[in-house]
Write a structure and sequence with these properties.
This protein has helices spanning 35-38, 46-68, 87-104, 113-119, 167-177, 184-192, 217-228, 237-265, 282-294, 304-307, 312-323, 341-346, and strands at residues 4-9, 14-21, 26-33, 77-83, 108-112, 135-140, 145-152, 155-161, 271-275, 298-300. With 349 residues, the protein is an alpha/beta fold. The structure holds 5'-O-[(R)-(carboxyoxy)(hydroxy)phosphoryl]adenosine and zinc ion (ZN).
């Protein structure tokens, strides 16, 4: 009988709970997005997020257990995201998980959200063959842009990160300049399909420079200047579409360039997992896929629901940590800031 882990995610604007068997069977998975709660403010409001997690979590866990057909006594561990993220949401999720761990008499596991994205690649059934360490994580979300070598459970080496905006943030800010609603990434991608990607030669910060760091603020500023130069009236649709397409082409070039550098730095990686909302972007996926194919690497692009914030990845990281004997005391804190490299230094917390 496979071990069973309950996972809880509440670090940003998704409340999620999942029950996972250690052999990779997803017994239940529930996600509640708070996008509608935050949309009027054009971004995530931490206090609103924390209250929404608090309102939703207990009933969601009950439903997840019910759907999975298990009770607390059937669980082998309870895993929750303990950072990085917004402190209010982290306290709600880890507080609940610790209470559940006490009730079930089972270990609590504090999960690093970035590690959960990284280990998703190893979820059985996700790709034709489970990737072997080391492989790369390219995390492209609204809050993070990172290129990380995954060397083992708890062992990560960051190759690069953003020097300014996260890539999803750049999509959202550019979309706002084009008059699109929050979150702008999907709307910008749809609009870009109608435009000419070569219409505007936008800057590609750091292109052809060594390393894997990202920078997007110069690109966003260039779009702001371009929009301002059109005057105060609403942008004609075709023009907005060509700006969107040109922006997307610039981001795609930047990401491909950084990934090529990562391969040069670490030729030993066999696969790349992409994660985060921006990994949903077809133009980006297609380009990274052909780059990987040309270099003999496998691109693992999980289905969108496992790419964006979810609790299956938290439960899976819990399974991996449980197997490695890495459980946590109930005194383990939440860490709003928690770089992946710290995990190696912590060992058994
Ligand atoms: O990982 P995620 O769902 O959550 C957080 O970071 O919290 O990422 C959300 C980000 C947003 O910035 C959104 O605009 C962007 O991912 N995004 C996209 C697309 N879908 C979502 N960006 C570009 N193209 C898309 N299709
Ligand atoms: Zn995430």
């Amino acid at each position: 009988m496979s071990q069973i882990v309950l996972g809880i995610e509440s670090s940003c604007d998704e409340t999620a709970a999942a029950v996972l068997a250690a052999d990779g069977r997803i017994l239940s998975e529930l996600v509640l997005s708070q996008i509608a709660d935050h949309a009027p403010w054009g971004g995530v409001v931490p206090e609103i997020a924390a209250r929404a997690h608090l309102a939703a979590l207990a009933e969601m866990v009950r439903a997840a257990l019910r759907e999975a057909g298990v009770g607390y006594a059937d669980l082998d561990a309870i895993a929750a995201t303990a950072g990085p993220g917004l402190i209010g949401g982290l306290l709600v999720g880890t507080g609940f998980a610790k209470g559940a761990a006490i009730a079930a008499g089972r270990p609590y596991i504090a999960i690093n959200h970035l590690e959960a994205h990284a280990l998703t690649a190893r979820l059985p059934g996700l790709s034709a063959a489970q990737p072997q360490f080391p492989y790369l994580l390219l995390l492209l979300s609204g809050g993070h842009s990172q290129c990380v070598v995954v060397e083992g459970v708890g062992r990560y080496r960051k190759l690069g990160t953003t020097l300014d905006d996260a890539v999803g943030e750049a999509f959202d800010k550019t979309a706002k300049l084009l008059g699109l609603p929050y979150p702008g990434g999907p709307a910008l991608e749809a609009l870009a399909r109608e435009g000419d990607a070569s219409a505007y030669p936008l800057p590609r910060p750091l292109l052809h420079r060594a390393g894997c760091d990202f920078s997007f603020s110069g690109l966003k500023t260039a779009v702001a200047q371009l929009v301002a130069a059109q005057g105060s009236a609403a942008l004609p649709r075709l023009l907005a579409a060509s700006i969107a397409a040109s922006f997307q082409a610039a981001v795609t070039d930047i990401l491909a360039d950084r990934l090529a550098n990562a391969f040069a730095l670490r030729p030993d990686v066999s696969a790349v997992i992409i994660a985060g909302g921006v990994a949903a972007n077809t133009a980006i996926r297609t380009r990274l896929d052909s780059l990987c194919a040309a270099q003999g690497k496998t691109l693992i692009a999980p289905p969108l629901r496992l790419c964006t914030d979810n609790a299956v990845m938290v439960a899976w990281a819990g399974v991996e940590r449980l197997r490695a004997g890495l459980t946590d005391p109930l005194t383990a804190p939440c860490k709003p800031r928690w770089p992946l490299e710290e995990l190696a230094r912590e060992g058994v917390r």
